[in-house]
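Hello again, I could really use a second opinion on something today. I owe you a coffee for this, so here goes:
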Amino acid sequence: MPEPDGAIDRKIARAITAWHRTNARDLPWRDAAAGERDPYRVLVSEVMLQQTQVARVVEKFCSFLARFPTIADLAAADEADVLAEWSGLGYYRRARLLHAAARAVVSDHAGEIPRDHAALLTIPGVGRYTAGAIASIAFNHPEPIVDGNVARVVLRIEARAETPNDTKGLKQTWKRAESLVRASTTPGAFNEGLMELGATVCTPRNPRCPRCPIADHCFARKRARQDEIPLPKPAAKRKPLYITALLAIDAKGRRLVERRPDTGLWAGMHQPPSLDRDDRFATSAEILGSLSLEAGAVLSEFDHQTTHRAVRFRVMAASAVRKGAGRAWHSRRQIASLALGTPQRRILLTDW
């Protein structure tokens, strides 16, 4: 007689939790000495990890916490300082939302991140996934989480040949994730283990099935379809963007720097004087008319891809420099502390 679903879910939950105790990676936000279940650390790490590789978050997490050790410190900080500390992680809207979340916690919740899942969802930038992560990991509440890693594990357990973000299928994935976490006696440890399993064993390609603690419960493996599930997402169609960046260097070696507009790509961050076009690079006449700078030799061209844009940069030397409103000369040391996107940092700090 087949086991009821509840019994299977309890077995899966126990197996993943036990596996995680001995196989979890040593990550700074799990440092027990610093407060493994501190909700602020959970919030910061989970926002940083959205669409970003773990290795890059490892590089930034400790310095961010050193700069803003408490949620009150983060709430009191200037946005420019938050963006500067976030530099290199990309998706800068997350930094702004994290900053807004900190301010909301201080103003609306007396500086304490709420324990209640519904209250968590009222905080700016905290959606169902982040709320579930905080509620379960920090407070051990049986709230589900579904990210790309979790979706892949669930789809393979159920042998569902779907894309992870299929609208109808995603509802079912959340439902199964909820069933699994509620079958666990330690929801936080289970959810962390589920994410860890997807990141290190149940990987997108060449899953390590012999090392999987729930291989016996995986229908994709039983049907030899683990390499086919989930189905690949459609390739992203990125719109082109051409950015001409003017590098102006004075006699002291300082670079001319300005802020980007408050909306759009790299909003409010710093850059060399630049002109964006959707169809082609700007002409010298357009550069002079828009930037009040004369373009000299082409120093470099390179590509940079974001989620929605295929960006082509052209770096040109600037002559007949006019500083202009909103621009300032900065030394390299000063530039290193500014809020910069990765390509802008490359342009401004390269030895040309």
